[in-house]
Amino acid sequence: MQRFFKILLKINFLLFLINPQLLYSQGLNKNLASADALYKRGNYTEAYQIYEKILLEEQHFTPAMLLKMAHIKKGLQQYSEALYLLNLYHSHFPEQSVQNEIMDIAEEQKLVDYKINDWEYIILVYRKYKLFFHGAMLLGIFSGVFWLYYRQHHQKDSLYQSILLNLLIAAYFYVYNYALSYPKAIVRNEKVYLMEAPSAAAKIVSKTQKGNCMQIIEKNDIWYKVRWQEKDETWEGYIRESNLYLIP
Length: 248
Fold this sequence. Notes:
- By secondary structure, the chain is α+β, with helices and mostly antiparallel strands.
- The chain folds into three domains: 2-111, Tetratricopeptide repeat domain (Serine Threonine Protein Phosphatase 5, Tetratricopeptide repeat, Alpha Horseshoe); 123-177; 184-247, SH3 Domains (SH3 type barrels, Roll).
- The chain is built from eight helices and seven strands.
- A five-stranded antiparallel β-sheet has the order 6-5-4-1-7.
- β4 and β5 (223-230) form a beta hairpin.
- α4 packs antiparallel against α5 and α7 runs antiparallel to α8.
- The longest helix is centred in the first third of the chain and has 39 residues, at 2-40.
- The termini are far apart.
């Protein structure tokens, strides 16, 4: 009987730990359902407010939610916000149709640096087939372990196989813990200046247009060092964090 009560206490403790997550998930789903219903009825402003709260305060989003938010902003002709949301979607759920929409808006609004380079393309392919890549690498590691065990069991030389296996394990843990990234940002305000150093007193290098896209190089306090290409010229400098929509 005493053992039964101990088991029951453990079950109750686990339920106590799980319940807050269940309640949070239920509340999140309820908010999403409410916003979706408003969107379906054409109450776009109210729907967007709920979506935005989920995105900013709850740090959560779904693919459909991002697309709906983007299309609301596009309908309001708020193109920098629409491009931010479409890029956020595309960075997590790469789709050619969404990339085409991004390029169309950028060309219509004469915005720069939305073309995907080779490195960014590799990252997008990796994110799209992430589960496949991780599965293939794990299969390779387990196969290597059994092959190494087989060779050692039969007293065969396994130095090169051991080195190869260790390199594969190191590569897997690097990719798993330090996922490939190409952080970008979109200018969110008008008349944003590119500074030579991370300071308001620094020399102004250039001025950039609202909606332009740029690569994030590093962060320095409230400043981001960025790079973007306009026509045949590459610009590099610092922009305040408050002037950027960040895309991980």
